TrEMBL record, chain A:
SUPFAM superfamilies: Thiamin diphosphate-binding fold (THDP-binding) (SSF52518). Gene3D superfamilies: 3.40.50.970. The keyword Kinase does not apply. GO terms for molecular function: oxidoreductase activity; thiamine pyrophosphate binding. It holds the Pfam family TPP_enzyme_C. The lineage of its organism: Bacteria, Candidatus Eiseniibacteriota. This is Thiamine pyrophosphate enzyme TPP-binding domain-containing protein. InterPro entries: PorB-like (IPR051479), THDP-binding (IPR029061), TPP_enzyme_TPP-bd (IPR011766). Residues 113-226 form the Thiamine pyrophosphate enzyme TPP-binding domain. Keywords: Oxidoreductase. It comes from the Bacteria.
Automatic annotation (TrEMBL), chain B:
Residues 66-234 form the Pyruvate flavodoxin/ferredoxin oxidoreductase pyrimidine binding domain. InterPro entries: PFOR_II (IPR033412), Pyruvate:ferred/Flavod_OxRd (IPR050722), Pyrv_Fd/Flavodoxin_OxRdtase_N (IPR002880), THDP-binding (IPR029061), Transketo_C/PFOR_II (IPR009014). This is Uncharacterized protein. It comes from the Bacteria. Residues 313-411 form the Pyruvate:ferredoxin oxidoreductase core domain. GO terms for biological process: response to oxidative stress.
Length: 336, 443
């Protein structure tokens, strides 16, 4: 394991010039993953159609990928990225792994490769749930990174199966309606049940934990899955500069607790108490985002956040969901 | 370009139009790892699916066989799995995916990972439909090392039937694959062997879709020659050189990018230009195959009873095994009716070799085109033939027929009924834009 400081000085394969929104957590995640993978091993990314694809892989405009300003003579520094349709990234990664292994088995390739699949929660949990679960089920030796912004951000902020209750999306509008009423898919449990070797829910807001998890994911047997809570500045509608703060608050308040789990070892919930009284109030998390503007309001004088009149019960319901979410995560941590 | 990599340390690389390419793969090791399935040439009696499976197994560049069952159209993946499983020490692997869509996605990942290996699978009907989102990506991808063997079967599941007509192949003509129709087990085997040479040609780089009729060819046995693996390798090695573009493993590259409109337009034009090159390269590969193995190689079509020169009264255009029934009735019917009858059995479906058809068919007074797939108009082949004949004076009359729909046998009586209509067209215009024939009668 490398130290956090050491990793911070590595050469990321995610380069400047992407057109991701300023404040997008995806670019922060890529920057960190890119540094962790600067470890002397050839890196191959696969990517499904998503914000991350259309904003970083734009030819002849900026292709924000590659290690170094020019290709290195050192194969261990080389980098490739492959995009195909929305749901395909895990299968592409699995295929790449298989080809590398088959070539190695023949003696035709004597250098290792590391393979990372990336995509959004829309691609992974809606149109791509099949491919996600089956690649995990086949124990493909790849790391799957899913950037969970709880919406189909790339196509106009529509509901995704990861959308949290009461969120205002373009297909679960909150105007005259409550917003989303479907509880999110239990994707962490699904990944464990499908046979993942490692499952984490971490964002770069937990910097050290995040890079350690990415580094560990490259070593574990079977498929490693990292769900990255990814506050979306355009879809969640928060203020500039609040991305990391929002990601931390969301994790600590219990909306998406930091979680690390390995098969055979079990796991743990990090930085999020089981007791609601010991966690930040989820209302503070809601108040930072205009996608919950129908639920809460901030007093302009006192700064106090309160439920909007008539929404008190909705807030209580939401708090109930958060508590059940935290309890579920603690239960999952006990699985071996 | 060498395939010999160095053992350790920094490796050299070269810039290509697609990125940087590292000389890291030792492909000769893959070839050395191949254990022959047929050390010698051998006569084999088997069905079409087995013939296709044997051909794919014999290729040293084929290391991984992704697949998903499509019952009962083809047991290609089951056959491959059985033969790979039975071969001790083989490095070949069977990859079972969860759906046809996943197979197609897998082929993108695998084909891009190493552009020098061949990745084949087989499917049919709704299986091919399920792949469609990605087959259309593959068609544009430049991954000529991908081959989807298509066992022809109607795509409709409402109602469901297992019989084979080429509706699926026709529905997927715009996927961007090179589509080649084979009839008979020998032609199936030979076509599958040649297809990657065409698809991976540096001027073409387009995936291939060899196909044959479901049930009639896929499930019925016949005797055919299987060449020794070494002979197959020698033939393919003449045509297959290490890809000049990098793959994701041996390259520093990005593939499948999001591009601006201007570049997308250029990309699509390039895609079309590459598939057009098939019309030049395919005859060369076919001729080399014939010279090597003594059997006809890839062609635009098989010819029946064309005189060296001069006109013919009726020219028949068809495809698939039912064309053989025409061949069997042709001579007697022509003699009885005192007309000359020739024929073309389609081999290259996509890109359609328009000029080659034009050159042949302009000698005919009447062209009888037999369509076997559902089409909302006059028939897929009819429209292609009409296009090929456009502007010719005098214009041969086109008799458009639908027969064998739903996989029905095109019986001798049905062929004779169609030929009777073609004969009438020698003197009068066809009575309808198209006619439907079934069980010996015009409906």
């Amino acid at each position: 394991m490398s130290s956090f400081k050491e990793i911070a000085t590595k050469d990321s394969c995610f380069r400047a010039g992407s057109t991701l929104c300023p404040g997008c957590m995806e670019s922060v995640a890529f920057q960190n993953i890119g540094r962790v993978t600067d470890n002397g091993v050839k890196t191959i990314f696969t990517i499904g159609t998503s914000c991350a694809e259309v904003s970083t892989l734009a030819f002849p405009n900026v292709v924000a990928w590659g290690r170094g300003d020019e290709s290195s003579d050192d194969f261990g520094k080389s980098f490739s990225i492959l995009h195909n349709v929305f749901e395909s990234a895990p299968t592409l990664a699995e295929a790449t792994r298989d080809v590398a292994d088959a070539l190695t088995d023949c003696g035709a390739l004597d250098r290792p490769v590391q393979i990372i699949s990336t995509g959004g929660d829309g691609g992974a949990f809606a149109i791509g749930l099949r491919t996600l679960l089956h690649t995990i089920h086949r124990r493909a030796r790849v790391t799957i990174v899913i950037l969970v912004n709880e919406i189909f951000a790339n196509t106009g902020f529509q509901y995704s199966p990861a959308t949290m209750p009461y969120a205002d999306t373009s297909t679960t509008p909150a105007e005259g309606a409550p917003g989303n009423m479907n509880p999110p898919l239990d994707y962490i449990h699904l990944a464990i049940a499908a046979g993942a070797g490692m499952v984490a829910q971490l964002s770069p807001a937990h910097g050290k934990m995040f890079v350690k998890a990415v580094e560990r994911s490259l070593e574990v047997e079977g498929t490693a899955v990292i769900f990255v809570p990814a506050p979306c500045i355009s879809g969640w509608k928060f203020e500039d500069g609040q991305t990391v703060e929002l990601a931390l608050l969301g994790a600590r308040s219990g909306v998406f607790p930091a979680f690390m789990w390995e098969r055979g070892k079990g796991g743990s919930v990090k930085d999020c108490s089981l007791e609601a009284s010991e966690r930040p109030d989820v209302v503070d998390f809601l108040a930072m985002q205009r996608r919950f503007a129908h639920l809460v309001q901030r007093d302009k004088v006192t700064g106090e956040v309160k439920p909007k009149p008539g929404r008190e019960q909705d807030i209580e319901n939401l708090k109930g969901w958060v508590q059940s979410n935290v309890e579920r995560m603690y239960s999952l941590a006990n699985l071996k | 370009m060498s395939t010999i990599g160095i053992e350790h340390g920094p490796t050299t690389h070269v810039a290509t139009p697609g990125g940087e390419r590292y000389d890291i793969l030792k492909l000769e090791r893959v070839k050395q790892a191949h254990i022959p399935f047929y050390p010698e040439q051998e006569g084999v009696t088997a069905d079409g699916n087995t013939a296709a499976a044997i051909a794919t197994l014999q290729m040293w560049r084929a290391l991984i066989y992704p697949g998903f069952p499509i019952t009962p159209s083809t047991k290609w993946i089951e056959t491959v799995a059985a033969k790979v499983g039975a071969q001790k020490g083989t490095k070949k692997r069977v990859k079972l995916l969860e759906a046809e869509h996943a197979v197609a996605d897998y082929m993108v990942g695998a084909g891009a990972a190493c552009r020098d290996l061949i990745f084949s699978t087989a499917t049919s009907s709704v299986g091919l439909d399920h792949m469609t989102e990605t087959t259309r990506s593959l068609g544009a991808s430049g991954l000529g090392n991908v081959m989807i063997i298509n066992v022809y079967r109607a795509t409709a599941n409402f109602p469901l039937c297992i019989e084979g007509d080429p509706s699926d192949a026709m529905a997927h003509r715009d996927d961007g694959f090179i589509q080649i129709c084979a009839r008979g087990k020998q032609q199936i085997y030979d076509t599958v062997l040649q297809a990657p040479c065409l698809g991976m040609h540096p001027e073409i780089m387009t995936p291939t879709m060899p196909g044959y009729y479901g049930i009639k060819d896929s499930h019925r046995n016949a005797r055919f020659i299987v060449e020794a693996d070494t002979a197959v390798h020698e033939f393919q090695d003449r045509w297959l050189q290490p890809c000049h573009l990098p793959g994701t493993i041996n390259g520093d590259t990005a593939m499948g990018n999001c591009v601006t409109s201007r570049h997308f337009q250029g990309f699509k034009i390039n895609q079309k230009r590459r598939i057009e090159r098939v019309l030049d390269i395919l005859p060369q590969i076919g001729a080399d195959f014939e010279k090597t193995f003594g059997r006809p190689g890839l062609r635009f079509f098989d010819e029946t009873a064309w005189p060296e020169a001069g006109p013919v009264d009726i020219a028949v255009v068809g495809m698939g095994p039912d064309y053989g029934t025409f061949e069997s009735v042709r001579e007697a019917w022509a003699k009885k009716n005192d007309v000359s009858v020739s024929g073309l059995a389609l081999r290259l479906l996509n890109p359609f070799p328009r000029d080659a058809y034009r050159e042949k068919l302009q000698r005919a007074k009447v062209v009888l085109v037999v369509n076997q797939a559902h089409h909302s108009g006059r028939g897929h082949l009819t429209l292609d033939v009409a296009d090929a004949l456009a502007g010719i004076e005098p214009q041969p009359r086109i008799v458009s027929a639908f027969a064998g729909m739903g996989g029905a046998d095109v019986s001798e009586a049905t062929w004779e009924a169609m030929l009777d209509e073609a004969k009438d067209a020698l003197t009068t215009a066809p009575r309808q834009p198209y006619m439907v024939f079934h069980e010996g009668a015009r409906l």
